Amino acid sequence: MSTDYSKELNVALLAVQRAAILTKQVFHSHAKGTLNKSDASPVTIGDFGAQALIIAAIKANFPDDEVVGEEEAKDLRENADLKKTVWDLVKQAKLDDDAAEKTLGGPIESDDRMLDVLDMGASQGGNKGRIWALDPIDGTKGFLRGGQYAVCLALMVDGDVKVGVLGCPNLPIDDSAPLTEDLGANATDSEGKGVLMSAILGKGADSRPLTRGALKDATTISMKTVNDISSATFCESVEAAHSAHGDQAQIASKLGITKPSVRMDSQAKYASIARGAGDIYLRLPVKKDYQEKIWDHAAGDLIVREAGGEVTDAQGKRLDFSVGRTLKNNKGVVAAPKAIHGKVLEAVTSVLSAKQ
Ligand SMILES: Nc1ncnc2c1ncn2[C@@H]1O[C@H](COP(=O)(O)O)[C@@H](OP(=O)(O)O)[C@H]1O
Ligand SMILES: [Mg+2]
Ligand SMILES: [Mg+2]
Ligand SMILES: [Mg+2]
């Protein structure tokens, strides 16, 4: 096993690239096979298929690694039609490059094996050993609505994130494309779209086109220097239930920001600030008891930090990925370039303490 994580990164990049072939196919089809999960959030055939493909690739290369994946096979075990639909998609999703496809272990052998592989995402996480955090489609609501979504994969070792990859099919390839409101709605994966970002701890962050997932073609990315916070661009969730739009508007106004926020689904927010298309990402809790999921943050947290940012919770604590499937030690997320993070956090504290 490599100690510089280059093999892990290579596998993760290719696995995310392959999974995105599947999600893009579903994105363009009318029937997305949407089901509602027990917490009333949606899951689609794209989520199931992408999770199976990525776990298969991880297990082919690192059989002893564990995976904390968002989805499970239960619904497919109970519904033969759904299982067949997902299997038809999974069978077809292949990289053009034979050598790369071989690196991922080739296709999954059978539909039953696909279900077993999907269920290998049941790790409870923790602070010991090698554990991957996988969100096969982050921003499922955005995916369904034609907004941003991301295929997210990160490797943690002893609870610390070492490798992070975000595949964003609907973000511009061009790192300098401005972050505009229309990237949040009516997003497409037409020409010029589709970016794959990554980071290895201590080695910086990169971006490359999603169609070229290998290590080649990478450009280094970094956050923008913000000389005047009042001109910063801040982004937040589209879903008002996922973060407190009202509190975030007050924080922005305290910082003198007059531009409206850019709302977009998924970890595309982390990706966008990491490359300086936006500057600040705020995610303040709506419900006190909601615990953020590690797969919603692991890759983005590392990519932003490696691009020169700081990511904390609303109290200024680093996100703690070592305590299970959720970030139970943290509330909220505040991500910004290192130089201004302290000022942003001051505004967060002042707005939140005024609410008590
Ligand atoms: N009440 C809540 N507060 C915060 N996040 C929530 C939430 N309910 C669901 N989520 C998470 O928000 C994620 C999407 O984040 P965003 O709002 O930034 O697009 C969802 O990921 P999935 O779409 O993978 O399920 C889900 O895990
Ligand atoms: Mg979900
Ligand atoms: Mg998610
Ligand atoms: Mg998801």
Question: What does this molecule look like?
Answer:
GO terms for molecular function: 3'(2'),5'-bisphosphate nucleotidase activity; metal ion binding. Belongs to the inositol monophosphatase superfamily. Pfam families: Inositol_P. It is an enzyme of class 3 (hydrolase). Mg(2+) binds at residues 70, 135, 137-138, 296. The structure is a single chain. With 356 residues, the chain is α+β, with helices and mostly antiparallel strands. It folds into two domains: 6-221, Fructose-1,6-Bisphosphatase, Chain A, domain 1; 229-355, D-Maltodextrin-Binding Protein, domain 2. Helices cover 34% and strands 20% of the residues. The chain has helices at residues 6-27, 45-61, 74-77, 80-92, 98-103, 111-118, 140-145, 245-254, 268-274, 298-306, 338-355; strands at residues 35-36, 42-43, 66-69, 130-138, 150-157, 160-172, 193-200, 205-209, 219-221, 234-236, 262-263, 280-283, 309-312, 333-337. A seven-stranded mixed beta sheet has the order 3-4-5-6-7-8-9, with helices on both faces. The chain has a five-stranded mixed beta sheet with strand order 11-10-12-14-13, with helices on both faces. Strands 1-2 form a two-stranded antiparallel sheet. Strand 5 and strand 6 (160-172) form a beta hairpin. Helix 2 packs across helix 4. The protein is globular, with a radius of gyration of 19 Å. It starts with 5 loop residues before the first helix and ends with a helix. The model has no long low-confidence stretch (mean pLDDT 95). The structure holds adenosine-3'-5'-diphosphate and magnesium ion (3 copies). One magnesium ion binds next to loops. Residues 41, 70, 135, 137-140, 142, 237, 239, 241-242, 265-266, 286-287, 290, 293, 296 line the site of adenosine-3'-5'-diphosphate.
